[in-house]
Amino acid sequence: MKRKWLLSLSMMSLFVFSSCESNGYHFYENFPQGYVVSSVDVDPAVAELPTQNIETSNNHHDYNKYYEEDHITYDYKPKEEQEALLGPFLALTFDDGPHHSVTPFLLDALYERGVPATFFLIGHYAYRHPNIVERIHNEGHLIGNHSFSHGNFTRISLDDVYVEIAATNAILYNITGQTPTLLRPPYGAHNEDVLQIAKYFDLAISLWSVDPRDWYHEDAYAVFEHIISHYRENSVILLHDIYESSAVAAIMAVDYFLEKGYIFVTVDELYNRLGFVMNAGAVHRSPYRDGSNLVLLED
Ligand SMILES: [Zn+2]
Question: Ligand 1 center to residue 187 CA distance, Å?
Fold first, then answer.
């Protein structure tokens, strides 16, 4: 088994693919020249991946174009004051990054507002942008595993599922010194076998409860409107930090909900604060209130 993982992993090549839920999965038909990982095992410590290809976060886009002229800016409570409160909570999650320009732009905005989020990173993008991964980690956000190549875990072999998870864990460990505790399988696709593999890696499955389909709209206002009309207390909101429009929608939502008194937390903290444990191998969407009871929205 181990030999097979290594063999599969050595075939993993860096390539450009259309990520996200709108496109098919082409990884195994495409093995261009380039990136080869040959020493990754289940133990992340053995992965010695060089840090390179560091891209600067310069971006020259006019993100303000998404705002109307009369967009209101608000004053916020200091982070310490926010954290002293017991809710209501929301968790923003960003999949498919890190992106060389959108992610730093988003990080700037979150930093200014003292808002933490959860980033489910794709392994080979993380490998290409270690400086951004480091920044996400250093600025207090939570990093989860979103596979190495965005494969659909229910359509590839179980060996390949192992490799997708192991490689990404290794890359993230190599950059941050921490092994992820959360897994978000691409497309949310999972079955019993996938859950067992997640359990083997001590990973809780983290899905979402609000999906504005930002990849489909690529329209900040449409995404923002969806979020504010579908959220409830403790929602876990799915966005993708590979679209400018999604980052802008996230910032608009942050401003909107901070004004309403909501507290943004990472997914693990959302569960911790409410007294829930995120179990490895189990699927979690969000905790929510059903009448006076707080219950878990699971599969
Ligand atoms: Zn994804």
Answer: 6
Q: Which DSSP category does 22 fall into?
A: T
Query: pLDDT tens track of the chain, all 299 residues?
Result: 443 344 344 434 333 333 343 333 223 222 233 323 332 332 333 333 333 332 333 333 343 433 333 443 444 455 555 455 578 999 999 999 999 999 999 999 999 999 999 999 999 999 999 999 999 999 999 999 999 999 999 999 999 999 999 999 999 999 999 999 999 999 999 999 999 999 999 999 999 999 999 999 999 999 999 999 999 999 999 999 999 999 999 999 999 999 999 999 999 999 888 888 899 999 999 887 666 666 666 65
d(CA 171, CA 164): 11
Tokens of 8: 């599969």
The Å distance, Cα 124 to ligand 1 centre, comes to 13
pTM: 0.74
> Which is catalytic among the residues 100, 190, 240, 284?
240
Q: What is the largest CA-CA distance in the chain?
A: 60
Angstrom distance (rounded) from CA 55 to CA 46: 26
Nearby residues of 20 by Cβ (< 8 Å), 6 or more positions away: 95, 96, 150, 215, 240, 242
* Domain 2-47+82-297 listed as CATH 3.20.20.370: yes
Q: Structural domain boundaries of the chain?
A: 2-47+82-297
Is residue 268 annotated as part of the catalytic site, yes or no?
no
